[in-house]
Amino acid sequence: xxxxxxxxxxxxxxxxxxxxxxxxxxxxxxxxxxxxxxxxxxxxxxxxxxxxxxxxxxxxxxxxxxxxxxxxxxxxxxxxxxxxxxxxxxxxxxxxxxxxxxxxxxxxxxxxxxxxxxxxxxxxxxxxxxxxxxxxxxxxxxxxxxxxxxxxxxxxxxxxxxxxxxxxxxxxxxxxxxxxxxxxxxxxxxxxxxxxxxxxxxxxxxxxxxxxxxxxxxxxxxx
Length: 223
Prior knowledge:
It contains 8 helices and 6 strands. It has helices at residues 13-23, 30-37, 41-53, 87-102, 104-126, 132-148, 170-175, 178-191, and strands spanning 57-62, 70-75, 150-156, 159-164, 195-199, 208-213. The strands form 2 sheets. It has a 4-stranded antiparallel beta sheet with strand order 3-4-6-5, with helices on one face. A two-stranded antiparallel sheet has the order 1-2.
């Protein structure tokens, strides 16, 4: 899992308008953008240079009958992240349909398969850990790269805390609590100890917090 930095909306209104225009086209030159925006081509080029540095636009040369080729600007794949999507709603609706058609067993089976894929990927990374500290650290880093904004800390010699400040499947988890239970079980399986969820986003907490004790004594796990 490589670190992936999400694109963010440009704070400049003109640059956002440029992105909107490019989204609705198959590519535009600086002159064409200037005509649509009602500003100079030089001003447009400055905005485009910024967007290009941010990895939000790409250019290709376009042949002209005479003169130098014009640069045609198009959105990059990264820029597509800036536009609204409803993947969470789509997944939730599909799972609701599956629940209605085949019952809760099939829904849980599907969620369990996803959890198993995540567990297998993280387990591969944990194989290089030389201590329990490193196992917790690698697990937290892996969850962070999956979009959970996860951080970890060591509370004492045998107690750790992993805090996840974002849930990329929050809408799914709200409708199907098994997703949260499977996540907690994944933590237990990967670390080989009991864990306790001391804070939960879905019950009003500011994060999902897992207390991990590096002992064989059960921690009163909460799923």
